[in-house]
């Protein structure tokens, strides 16, 4: 075989050398790229580890300042001293079933929860303070809330009656008394469609909370969730009728204000007499009834002070939050339970010392739309029936139609009912259809509207219960006699309504149905704890 020419051999050799050089350059570039990627990865990983370690160190320092440095800092930020905080952590772990996670301790999540309630901070703020994600803060908040609700058997005060050897000047004359109860309004954020029911007479969106406390200002029973438009007496009836509700032992009683009815287990002051301490203004009581009212007011004021401590301690109760309405209701329960924890395990209540010089007698009533008790002066009582007028069926029908027409008119209808002067407008509308109409606005139209509402409210409430429905043919309720008799035991205002014909119920649903307080959001701590399981 003939050899290749020298020029051809050189050309092939150059090609091989060029290919080898190119390959070497590619290998160098690949190695350099790999080296750059490895360095970048290590740098980012080290930076992430360093940042994570810095957050962990800062979190530990923050927790140390909150729960370990001194009692004054712990009380200022978490409303309780270090020993009480540790007791709470042990309780939620051993009784509430709260478990630590790989990255969070029980002490940390409990501190996040308490800090949120004490200062009313949003999840974004808590995530910055505790160096956690907002998802972690939100998830742990609900877990701690459910765990605290399970502590009710230990933290709710067991009622103890006042004995004969009581040395407390306020209480020694009320032997057998268990404490005091009242309602208070706490602002909430309900769903938009429910706001009319939660709106009070003064325009605030609130829930009516029933609180029962002992003389030591510890809560015995709490029922939040009723709409702000509901009357205190209606909330109390619901509390008594619940399976795990308020119970009054035989021979014992609670002190209540004049917004409630005087009944077995509940002692109200004398009507038509001076009652509130500011009404005496340093003067002595002039009659035995006034003396009793003064003693009653001094003792019953414990529930007002208890509410004051509760709202002053937990700032989340001072303004509406943006949790679901169910969570807002359960937050109120948790605040009451931790209020009892502080008063039970701390040697002094720091919040009480802050307001010790601000004890004032409250007006004792919550803003309610319905009125269940009124004091009739002798002059009015003697004149009852003097201007009485009988209404024909046609006149009542036209009156109801006028109410419906005004209810659909935005110029007259508001969330809480009608604007002032609406009865004058109704009078004009009725006169337009019945020229011979001779009833006056006051008292005739006012009295008839009040009568219609006193019949509509209990009938509407019964129709929302299982076992009772409305008969549109007979225009009356349809229920078993046994069911009705049991219902009347806790709702005395429904007596005699089983066979009562009321042809205006469906029409008046348009007028008052949307503004009617239902109590569907109300639940006590036992129900909430069982639901949390």
UniProtKB/TrEMBL annotation:
Q: Name one GO molecular function term.
A: nuclease activity
Myb/SANT-like domain residues are 390-485
Q: Which UniProt keywords apply?
A: Hydrolase, Membrane, Metal-binding, Nuclease, Nucleus, Transmembrane, Transmembrane helix
Q: GO CC annotation: what is one?
A: nucleus
Q: Which residues belong to any copy of the DDE Tnp4 domain?
A: 181-340
Q: Identify this protein by name.
A: Uncharacterized protein
- Which Pfam family would be a valid example here? DUF8040
* Record localization: Nucleus
From the record, give the transmembrane residue ranges: 16-37
- Spell out the family assignment given in the record's similarity comment: Belongs to the HARBI1 family.
On whether Membrane is a keyword of this UniProt record, the answer is yes
């Amino acid at each position: 075989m003939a050899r290749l020419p020298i020029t051809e051999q050189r050309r092939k050799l150059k090609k091989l050398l060029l290919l080898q050089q190119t390959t070497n350059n590619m290998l160098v570039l690949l190695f350099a790229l790999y080296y750059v990627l490895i360095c970048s990865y290590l740098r980012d990983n080290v930076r992430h580890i360093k940042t994570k370690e810095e957050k962990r160190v800062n979190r530990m320092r923050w927790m140390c300042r909150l729960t370990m440095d001194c009692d004054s800092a712990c009380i200022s930020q978490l409303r309780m001293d270090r020993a009480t905080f540790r007791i709470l952590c042990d309780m939620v772990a051993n009784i509430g079933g709260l478990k630590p996670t790989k990255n969070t301790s029980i002490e940390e999540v409990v501190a996040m929860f308490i800090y949120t309630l004490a200062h009313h901070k949003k999840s974004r703020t808590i995530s910055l303070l505790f160096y956690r994600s907002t998802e972690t803060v939100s998830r742990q908040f609900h877990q701690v809330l459910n765990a605290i609700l399970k502590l009710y058997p230990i933290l709710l005060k067991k009622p103890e009656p006042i004995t004969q050897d009581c040395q407390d000047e306020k209480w020694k004359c009320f032997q057998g008394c268990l404490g005091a109860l009242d309602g208070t309004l706490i602002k909430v954020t309900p769903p938009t469609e429910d706001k009319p029911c939660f709106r009070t007479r003064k325009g605030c969106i609130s829930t009516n909370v029933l609180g029962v406390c002992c003389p030591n200002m510890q809560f015995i029973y709490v029922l939040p969730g009723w709409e702000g438009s509901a009357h205190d007496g209606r909330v109390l009836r619901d509390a008594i009728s619940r399976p795990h509700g308020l119970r009054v032992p035989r021979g014992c009683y609670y002190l209540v204000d004049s917004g409630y009815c005087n009944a077995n287990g509940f002692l109200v002051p004398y009507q038509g007499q001076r009652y509130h301490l500011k009404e005496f203004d340093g003067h002595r009581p002039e009659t035995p009834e006034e003396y009793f009212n003064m003693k009653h007011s001094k003792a019953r004021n414990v529930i007002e002070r208890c509410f004051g401590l509760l709202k002053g301690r937990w700032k989340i109760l001072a303004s509406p939050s943006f949790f679901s309405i169910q969570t807002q209701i359960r937050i109120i329960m948790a605040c009451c339970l931790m209020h009892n924890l502080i008063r039970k395990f701390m040697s002094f209540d720091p919040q009480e010392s802050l307001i010790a010089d601000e004890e004032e007698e409250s007006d004792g009533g919550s803003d309610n739309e319905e009125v269940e008790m009124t004091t009739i002066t002798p002059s009015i009582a003697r004149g009852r029936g003097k201007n009485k007028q009988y209404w024909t069926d046609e006149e009542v029908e036209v009156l109801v139609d006028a109410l419906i027409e005004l209810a659909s008119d935005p110029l007259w209808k508001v969330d809480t009912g009608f604007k002032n002067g609406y009865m004058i407008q109704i009078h004009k509308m009725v006169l337009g259809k019945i020229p011979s109409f001779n009833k006056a606005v006051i008292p005739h139209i006012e009295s008839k509207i009040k009568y219609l509402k006193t019949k509509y409210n209990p009938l509407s409430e019964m129709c929302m219960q299982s076992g009772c429905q409305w008969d549109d043919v007979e225009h009356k309720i349809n229920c078993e006699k046994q069911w009705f008799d049991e219902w009347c035991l806790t709702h005395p205002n429904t007596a005699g309504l089983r066979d009562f014909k009321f042809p205006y119920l469906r029409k008046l649903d348009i007028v008052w149905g949307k503004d009617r307080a239902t109590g569907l959001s109300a639940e006590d701590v036992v129900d909430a704890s069982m639901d949390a399981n």
